[in-house]
Amino acid sequence: MDMPSRTISDDREEGAADEGSRGFFGKFGSRMSRQRGDASPPVNLHTRDALLLLQNYEESGRGWFWATDANGRITYITDTVAKLMGRSANELVGTAFTELFLPVDSHGERQRTLPFLMTKQSKFDELPLRSAFEGDDRWWAISGSPHFDANGRLGGWRGSGTDITAHRRSAEDASRLAMYDSLTGLANRFNISKKLDTTLSAFAQQQRSCAIMLLDLDRFKQVNDTLGHPAGDALLKQVAERLLKIVRDKEMVSRLGGDEFQIILPDIEDRGRLGDMASDIINSLSQPYSVEGSRCIIGVSVGVAIAPFDGQTSDDLVRNADLALYAAKGNGRGRFSFYSSDLHQSAEDRRVLEEDLRDALARGEMELSYQPVVNAKSNTVTGVEALIRWTHPDRGVISPGLFIPIAEEANLIWPLGEWVLRKACEDAVRWPGDLRVAVNVSPIQFANADLPKVVANALATTGLPADRLELEITESVFLADSKETAQMFKALKGLGVRLALDDFGTGYSSLGYLQSAPFDKIKIDQSFVRGATVPGSRNGAIIAAIVALAEALEMETTAEGIESLDQLDLIRKLNVSHVQGYVYSKPVSQNELIEHADAGSWTIKPAGPAKQRNDRFSLFRKVGAVHGNHRYSVVIRNLSATGAFIEGILDVPVGTQFVIDFGEGQLVTATVRRSMNHQQGVQFEQSLVSDGNGGLCTRHRVSPYLIAAAAQQSGSQIALPAFTTTSDWKPA
Fold it and tell me: What CATH number has the domain spanning 180-341?
């Protein structure tokens, strides 16, 4: 049955909406009535209820309405929404509707823009747009459709909007949680992996380089174990802050999880620059931290790989950087390492060595040698440091720098350290006189509550007087200022043994613990000594300060790694009390030591090069020497940053230039400075740089992109630089 028609005037008497109603449909219904000339336009009850419902909806704030003319200028907008935008509805009338919102590009949306849709007279639904008014950070979902007159001409737009700010922020928070580490705020593993994929893909097309660094914190687990996980979390936040101060670009630094971090470094392939940055990171992250009132010291190891040299996909690059990181940790931690192809074999070698190391003690493959510690003024030996040596049945002598980190990772350092302590005491008790023996104690041993018992047992079993045993302890035992640390020092000192602080100056030492820890000696790290004689070096002043501090605290000092006479002369002038290094003696066997000690007072005359020189690496390595269109196979016998000693070519004139090919794109121009039959001393045009592991590498490499281009141009061989020469020399 049809509902009876009623008028607005009839409704007024019942309190219904009138022409002055604030609602969208009330106002526009009244306007439409006036446009028809009706004094009291008839509106059926169904329509009236619909208008009232829409008005109530508008007033509820859950949605709003808008309308424009054919030019897109506002003719109506809900007043409450206008006020949220900092305006009134009347102020916004006549404003272009598109001006209410920020352009799409300003907030990264991938969608057709509002101006485009209105220009095309297209209907749109739930278009997410952000308010353009200052101080209004709301998001709106806008819907609208055009309306046309009887002739098909655009009459304007009508539409609605809803507030989606809460939903938008929730989605952004969820997106951020999915892309960023909640603890540090750095990019997470997923985010950085995606970014690396994108970067490498783009850079491959543009033939650009990109380096990555993988970082693993050293001794972080001890912080968690000692101070608890909340302290560990606080420490990770500080680590992130320090990384950002060096790298600066927050989007390129990520926390992969746990204590692992990754850094992307676009357009950097200079290994000198990368090495400097890695060193800065190591130095910065190794400085003490203050966490919940405790002082903590950790370290970091860094692995570096560079695209396209070390891999062109993210999987390859990350895997190779991880191998480099593994090498850095395996070579003593607290250092960096560049990837090289031989690391694959090194990783396998380490795995095999770990297996062999488990049985090395039982098979009697371990022995001790002793390096003299000499009084700097009298040249008299006052003690020795026990150094462990492993003679492998197949590989011969293996450096402690290689197998000690393996022992630490494989949980073998405790039985190994216990054997060294007992063996050193057994040997020392056989020495005539009162020579002291120094034994290194690792942080892992120091953290074991049984250490005092082991020391006491070694002394009691062998009969060695306690004051002839000196335990060398590194600064890393002060990882946290804890009661356990103080109790350990008290227990060890209670046995009557001497305590020496080893490698002083490498861990950003605190003077505070020198007041409380009962040390008898400070050992000055060789890194200070080796640079002390270089013009402009401040190391001499640092050494002088250490000596003054030690004297004030009534401690002895020992300078490590003295190799040249000018270093020794400086050390003596700075009043260092004891010296240890090749300038006096290399480590000697137990039998040699007894022979010297039996002769009475053991005095050693210093001998060595007059001046410090660049580190030289003795090796036997085949490389290529390119001259003109010829490539010769030569052997490097000695290598330094500035030159090398090679052999394999006869009668090469002085001044001849080569390109030395070290492999893996490492080329360096070298000039012959000395020539003796089949041996030549060459000087490099550009100095080599540290590879972070005690070796050297070229600063730059020939890009695979250039190699591919050169090979394509020449058909098969790469065209290398040729040098003009009148030489007539031939392979040896």
Answer: 3.30.70.270
